[in-house]
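Forwarding these from the shared drive since the link keeps breaking.
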Amino acid sequence: MNQETDEHARVRAVLDRQAGAFEALVRDYQKLCWHIVFRMVRDPDDARDLCQETFLRVHRQLHQFRFECALKSWIGRIAYSIALRHLERRRTAAVTHLDDDNENALEMLADDSLDLEADSGDEQLALRLREGVDALSPVPRTLVTLFHLEELSIAEISTITGMSEGTIKSHLFRARLSLRDWLRRRGLGEP
């Protein structure tokens, strides 16, 4: 069974109120929801409430799902919008703009990017890297998590966030620059 057929069957099972169908859907997508929401709001209690709100909305609106994107992306979009609205209500900046030096460094990326997967092999470095990711503002922190932890494509992240692929790439690049600087200041990056 291919992914599209599987998603149709899964949605149909939930809409037909088959026993355990919605619970299985929640179980399969709760990690994605948590990664998006917690990376945005950073408060475990708020994140739990917002994840619950996400799945309540999924349950209420599943009949409107038209399979124009993957179910995973649709659920992720709901989680992202709920977390973003939460930040707006709290008047928390979702993105912190970098200084001009980092802005001008966009042209220098070429092949000089920070490889999060390779660099996280060392425990000390991995710990510092997590601290660095946590220090990012909500949107870049979430994009880094979706790209590197959830291993979503730029296109999938675009569907979830509503951002253009270029904007996502720019945020990811800037986040890598920030992380590289973070590591350098702690004596863990290249000189």
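-- next protein --
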Amino acid sequence: MVALTKNDNKSIIVRLGGIFGEAVKVEYLDSNSFKTSRLDEEGVEVEERIVILDEVPSYKRSDLLARVSLNNGDVKTIQMLGEDNTGEISLEMKGATVKVLLQTPREFELSKYMQPPKEADTTDFVLSPMPGTLISYAVEEGEIVQIGQELCVIEAMKMQNIIRSPRAGTIASCRGAVGSSIMADDVIIEFYSDEPPPQ
């Protein structure tokens, strides 16, 4: 309810699942009633409902637990796990976690122009988990490796870290030069997508 003070229209958009998740418009009617409407992809209100609370909610920012009384008398407890730097709030109920983002109607309108990030397929690559120096390889191009087998060693903060194979396969190439500096997410090793080409 406090989030409704983000704008003067007494309404807020709740995104379930983050910025690209399902949108629900919540409008403040009075101290214990709200109108909720699911929004379709164009922002058109569908499935309108009126929600009436048994009591006026009191909210303190320090509270991590909220108790919600449903129509059938069931009381559910929701835990706030935290908020990240994008404003997404992690909520948990009965072991299930959901990301929630609160937006003003204007923020929602502008978010329609954002495109979801494309997921890169890194199945055939081993990426550096940290910045550091590539110390050595334990494999060569053309070698068949198993899950968990040592591939290389990266030194970071004066510690040597063994990088192990995330899958079984055949090494297509060892990308980094031994002794070179690498950044986090740099490709170190590439696997053949299928079997290696015939020799």
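The chain has a mean pLDDT of 84. DSSP finds one helix and 16 strands in the chain.

- D.
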